[in-house]
Protein 1
Amino acid sequence: MGSQPEMDAKALMEAACRVMSDDSMETLARRSFSPKKIDIFNHAYSVLESREQYQFIKDTEAERLLPGIINNPVQQVISADTLSEEAQTEFNKQRNIGVVFSGGPAPGGHNVIAGLFDELKKYNADSRLFGFLQGPDGLLESRYIEITRDLVKKYRNMGGFTMIKTGRTKIDSGEKMEKALVTCKHLGLDALVIIGGDDSNTNAAFLAQHFKSSGIKVIGIPKTIDGDIQVKTDDGQTLCAISFGFHSAARAFARNIANLANDGSSDVKYWHVCKVMGRVASHLTLESALQTRVNLALIGEELADYIDEERLEKAKNNGGMDYNAFGITLRHLSRVICDIIVRRAAFGKNYGVMIIPEGILEFINEIQVFIIKLNKIIADYNAIHDLDFHRAFPGLNGKLDYLRRVSQGMIDKGKFPIWNLRDDELFNQLPNFFKEGLLVERDFHGNFQFSQVKTEKIVMDMVKEYLDVLKEQGVYKVGIKRTDYTSFMEAARMDPELYAPALFKNPHDEYVLVKPEIISLKTLKQALVNSDMLDTDDELPEALVAIFRKSEPVFKTQTHFYGYDGRGSDPTNFDCNYTYNLGLTAFHLIAGKATGQMAAILNLEQDFEQWQPIGIPIARLMHLEERKGKLELVIEKSIVDLNSNAFRVFKTMREDWVAADTGTDRFRNPGPVHFFSDTEEDRPLMLKLNSLESGEK
Ligand code: FBP
């Protein structure tokens, strides 16, 4: 190194630029990749056909609030090689379309824009696409850019929503809708495309209703890594199997988790605790678990159904009923986790990988009650005060004081207090960081912000506490391989067979466990004295001390949060194709004069050749739900279906994945995300499993 002549700074930078181009090879390759097009889009034109076989119950509130779009049918985009002259002119007309991202990023968003742009320009080169900046705020404040061919080129097949950015503002008042309408009219828009999650598609429906008389169409696109937009008809036919971004985020999480599993089972000292995004639903956890086969994955939806059989039995024997046996508590949950840790440790595996969904609290009774009550108290406060709750009481103590005052005030007025003394008592038993988490500011849509709460910390603190108890009881021990014990003793010139019965509760097994009563050097000596292996005055042989130390578990964890990283990852091949076709579908729905529809792809769970572009009536997906303390009309979120194939397969296989046995771990490595290659599954495993028919090979 020293002998190399030093380059001057300019020459070095010039040379460095040649070595490190601004865009990586991956970026360049992604930009030039062409997603597949559903065949219908290779034809000259399209028409929309109603599909009456797909039916949904109408919510009466949706009927009242969305009369202009409630009777929309499911529409299928059908190819048409010729149209009447008048229809052709209409199809080919110059259009202005606006597009906006809403909510958290999801891989593939740029391809929706690319598909929309390509199709718009294909039919009329003078058509224009406008992108509203930073989400719905751009629409309200008339901040936008015109999306050009060069811009689209830069972002094709790329992750993030960086082209026009996103935001979470909700267009939730007549005034805001009017502002949005003014912006759209000012730009002479024919249509607005809203790329968002369940709440943003709810917004799209209300805007479609509000814009109806102006003639401006509104189309929604099912976006969210959470995978909680899944549409089924009343008789269970799947219209939209998953929102876009889910596959890429799950694959990104799975890739990282598999890497952890690799590290963790090499340097065998940590339990890796992975919190995975997804809001309330555990779809991302389920898919990541199927991809990686980690030792333990908690599915929130399943915990809600938990029944403490032991408790129930006890009550039954006493001739009563214990309603507290239904639903899981944090205590129970920590016991379930400890059981797996202890069982693995018995086979020498005092390490592992577990996944906890970020929304798990929603399914834990005692915590859910707090979330609901606090939602209502905060919403009520905000409805009557100028300064909102979080600004009025920035510190934890101020918030807690207010809760007590609410309770007292209601009692004084002779009302049943929403926050009672028992709540106060239970809430105060929680650690401060967790109390703060539960009081965290709700988002624009009134949703509890699970990503802001250290769920994994509260759960793992309880796990650690209980493991200490189990250690004291001699239940939590690290199993020692019998052959290792034998060689160790022989090396120390001691007879392994002589000592084994005194030391181990299962001296002849492949993994031996130090007896439960031996929990210290003192009790070890006692056990040896009792078995006449040692005299009271003898020193403990070093080899036996070493064996005992090996059996003592040290529980060490590393926690990881997988969320924003996966949300910002580049799309998989599946999402590249899916989103590009969603963009194309959105254009064809607009050309067919649809409004209040969500663009979707039918048969997403099947091979690409089966994919069909459709429009789903958003108003028909709505129901009343508690938000910000009152009932609001929103799209129903889909959570993990415990009867689905994917969950049933997981449930059957998971005991094997615990690997509490003499075998090796069953970890599976899904590899990195690809946009072209045949080394990646072509769609989420959940979709593949859910589409399996009985008898299918
Ligand atoms: P969307 O529902 O908007 O797609 O967002 C998904 C999500 O990533 C959730 O998984 C997560 O709980 C939340 O956004 C985090 O929100 P924020 O970006 O406000 O921290």
Note: The first strand starts at residue 45 and ends at 50.
Protein 2
Amino acid sequence: MRIAICPGSFDPVTKGHLNIIERSAKLFDVVIALVLVNPNKQPVFTAPERTEFLRRACADIPNVKVDSYHGLLADYARSVGACTIIKGLRAVTDFEYEFQQALINKKLNGELETMFVITDSNYMYLSSSMVRQVAQFGGDVTDFLPECICKDIVARLPRSKTTEGESVQ
Ligand code: PNS
């Protein structure tokens, strides 16, 4: 059985993430969408919240499981017998960081390959941090978030006190 992992912070999961997971699910027997800790980021949502949103977003894809892990991706992959990590690439700017991670993961777990899936052009510009920022200032994020969790995510995101467009002076 070919098991792949789609890892990420998912803070929160966006339609861009979901598109990569759906496409990966067509290529592998099982795909694990995995919430991990990115030490370079301070998440807005807790790991259980991010995992729950991801679980609801993926509920209709039969061969996708959702999990969370505090530790090295390479170790998690070994523990579940996964052969591949799948990462979405939006632009050349993503590449250097992803390339470095792929090499480190390969060094830590020689059995593990990293595959890059080019993002759907509809989601080229999309990132969790952009979504959080738009929502923070009261913008419409319905095009960016999976429909079934959109309202709950927006309700739980912190809102800026100056959402009415007033001057900050
Ligand atoms: O969505 P992100 O924040 O770009 O995902 C990055 C993530 C969480 C996949 C990466 O930080 C990660 O793999 N974290 C787990 C710790 C780990 O294995 N680090 C070694 C690779 S640098």
Note: The longest strand covers residues 3-8.
